[in-house]
Fold:
Amino acid sequence: MSQYGNGPGGQWNAPPPARKPPYVLIAVVAVVVIAVIVGIVVVVLRANDDDSSKADATTTSAARSSSAQTADEPIDCSYKVGSERAAKPVDPPPAEYAGDPEKQATISTNQGDIGLTLDAEKAPCTVNSFISLAEQGYFDDTACHRLTTAASLKVLQCGDPLGTGTGGPGYTFQDEYPVNESSSTRLYKRGVLAMANAGPGTNGSQFFLVYDDSQLSPDYTIFGTIDSEGLTVLDDIAAAGVDPGGQGGGDGPPAEKVEITSVKVE
Structure:
């Protein structure tokens, strides 16, 4: 596969949907009749949760691959260490995610700050990995190596310390939302944060930021959104275009170098 492929990748394309966590169940048990006394008993059942004071139900829509989880219901994640060395020394993430369904993060760059909302409800293992890498300083002082400006693909790709599109953290993990939910082309809307990969189950550290609506196959895990200020930064980067010394065709290193100085998660 060439360094700059048709989708967000190169050697790294994009990640799939999260494994489904235990569902929260609510059962209503009614009717106990003794003689002329009728009693109605409501019993609330929660999987993996002994706290009877929490009686909120979790609803699942057809658009979600994972049900909502709480800090009391950790999600099991699997990170497979491979033979390839990490592009930068880093430890694999914890084997489970027990954090909030939503986290805030900031990518600080030489072009400005890009605020993120991480969606651990739909992609808990992806968010778990991203947070782990950020906390270990993996993204610090790395360049966003790829900008695409084609009509159907408008993204900035980052997360490779090598700056070539071939580097990763030395481990891979499975795909999450919306992978496997549909085989048709999907609109990755402006403001989406998604993973890049090299095929099914090869998610690592590379991710892409969508600065305008892009048509892609649903092969890339969506794990968050970009705030308005961050989109303004991306618009400015995109307006400068692609480095003319790159691959050409609106796909290559950004003309204005984008250097990540840090990624902080709140």
Remarks:
- The longest strand covers residues 102-109.
- The chain has a mean pLDDT of 79.
- Helices lie at 124-135, 228-240.
